[in-house]
Write a structure and sequence with these properties.
This protein has 175 residues and is mainly α. It folds into 2 domains: 80 residues, Rna Polymerase Sigma Factor, Chain: A (Orthogonal Bundle); 76 residues, Winged helix-like DNA-binding domain superfamily/Winged helix DNA-binding domain (Arc Repressor Mutant, subunit A), CATH 1.10.10.10. The chain is built from 7 helices and no strands. The relative contact order is 0.11.
Length: 175
C-alpha cells in the first residue's frame, strides 16, 4: 500500500523520474503523460515495495514499461515507430553558447541507439548505479558497463562531428 514514506521518496525522485521520462519519450508533453501515468499506476498498485531503494528501481521500471507499452500500442496503430522524431523540449534560457551546447548534446543523444540512450538515461541522467541499472534493464552488470562506455564514446563522437560555428563575441565599442 502507498504510504507517506512512498510520497516522500516519490517527491525526492520527481526530477530524476521526469528526466528519465523525457529521455525515453523525447517530447515534454509525452514525458509529462508518462510521468503522471506512472504515479497514478504506483499509487493504485496493490503491492508497493517498502524498501526505498527497491521502490526507486520499481518506479523507474514502471516508467520504462509504460513507455514500452506505448511504443507497442503506437506501432500497432500506425504500423511503424518514427525513431527520428525531433525533441520539442525547450532548453533553459541562458547565454547563446550554453544554449548551443544544450541543443548539441540533446541532438547527439537523440542520434544514439536505443540501448545507448537507455543506459545513459539511467546512469548519467537518473543517477542509477551499474548494479541498479543492470537490475532495471534485466541484463548483466558487465553488459551495462560496456554499454555505458560505448554510449559515452558514441556521444562524444557525435559531439565532435557537430558542424556548429559558435556565435561571434560582440566587441564593445569605445567612444
Amino acid at each position: 500500500m502507498f504510504d507517506d514514506r512512498h510520497h516522500e521518496t516519490l517527491h525526492s525522485l520527481r526530477r530524476r523520474l521526469f528526466g528519465y521520462a523525457c529521455a525515453l519519450s523525447r517530447r515534454i508533453e509525452d514525458a509529462e503523460d508518462l510521468y503522471q501515468d506512472a504515479i497514478v499506476r504506483a499509487m493504485g498498485a496493490r503491492s508497493v515495495p517498502r524498501d526505498s531503494v527497491a521502490f526507486r528501481v520499481w518506479m523507474f521500471r514502471l516508467i520504462r514499461n509504460l513507455w514500452i507499452d506505448r511504443l507497442r500500442r503506437d506501432s500497432r496503430q500506425s504500423g511503424f515507430i518514427d525513431s527520428e522524431a525531433e525533441a520539442e523540449a525547450q532548453p533553459a534560457p541562458g547565454d547563446e553558447e550554453s544554449l548551443v551546447d544544450v541543443l548539441l548534446v540533446r541532438q547527439a543523444f537523440l542520434r544514439l541507439s536505443k540501448d545507448h540512450r537507455d543506459v545513459l538515461a539511467l546512469v548519467d541522467i537518473a543517477g542509477f548505479s551499474y548494479d541498479e541499472t543492470a537490475e532495471l534493464l534485466e541484463t548483466p552488470r558487465g553488459t551495462v558497463m560496456s554499454r555505458i562506455s560505448r554510449a559515452r564514446a558514441a556521444l562524444a563522437a557525435q559531439l565532435r562531428q557537430s558542424n556548429v560555428v559558435p556565435f561571434p563575441r560582440q566587441v564593445e565599442r569605445r567612444r
